[in-house]
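User: Fold this; tokens only.

Assistant: Input:
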Amino acid sequence: MSGSSLGPLMLDLEGLTLTERDRELLVHPQIGGLIFFTRNYQNPQQLQGLVEEVRSIRPNIIIAVDQEGGRVQRFKEGISRLPPMGLFGKLYDSDQKKALELTRDCGWLMATEILSFNIDISFAPVLDLDFGVSTVIGDRAFHRDPEKVSQLAGAFIDGMLTAGMAATGKHFPGHGYVAGDSHIDIPVDSRTYEEIEHCDLIPFKNLIARGLSGIMPAHVIYDSCCDQPAGFSKFWVQEQLRKQLGFDGVVFSDDLSMEGATVAGSFVSRAKAAIDAGCDMVLVCNNREGAEQVLAGLDDINFKPDQARLNKLRGHPQLTYQQLKNNHRWIEVEKEITNF
């Protein structure tokens, strides 16, 4: 199984250990990724055992987590608590050099810890702008200013890359301007393309060349540009992201279980719309029935993602979890970040 190619579906697990159905799904050829949530984590020892079992069944699967910091941190007990990225933005306004150093260290700390469990990626950093209206983004964003976001997120990416983790920017082309939460709403951003281009798109433009290996579009409809959410839109994924910005990494759909994805119809229709738009991998989370429907439908879609793109997401751990506690840099950075 280790040499098998990866399919386009990323799904999740039910709990702290693998069920028999989980084991069956992991070897399905249409599965390419696995994402962990808080319900899959109890402590470092449990997580190590869970990852080892997953890898024993499907060694090459891409394993992911949302470990941004602040409100979005799935693993907590025994793991460094990371601040919200907005705090680095506030520091940047008074001490640019210190802010960039701390942000780089935070990216390194997060990535080093996640990689120590043989997990490949954390979906980070957030490249959205904090316009002060989005409750779901808010202090997950580094700043309101797109150039400052570029600088801070670039430092965070540098830290991730130093640790051995690929970076994924989200939520293209920008989720920060709408008040609606796409988890429970279908947000519409009615700005013109020019307004978005000269603001929200700037961090994506700046950071694609700086090491982004993945990008996740937003479940937001930018109705002056296209009548579909960005992740289902050829305009945004193929015309803007691929052609205009020259991005050649992995495009992940955001979770197809979210309310913002329902405009595309059934789960299978959502997966097909995302793939037709240009997504390489589709996520179906917190809805096993929906994931199973997509799995069955993918056999008819007959799509296989670019394996070279996916392989660039593989993590390159430098330290085991046990080694972290005796690593001088980890000790210094962990104290610095958790006391920030």
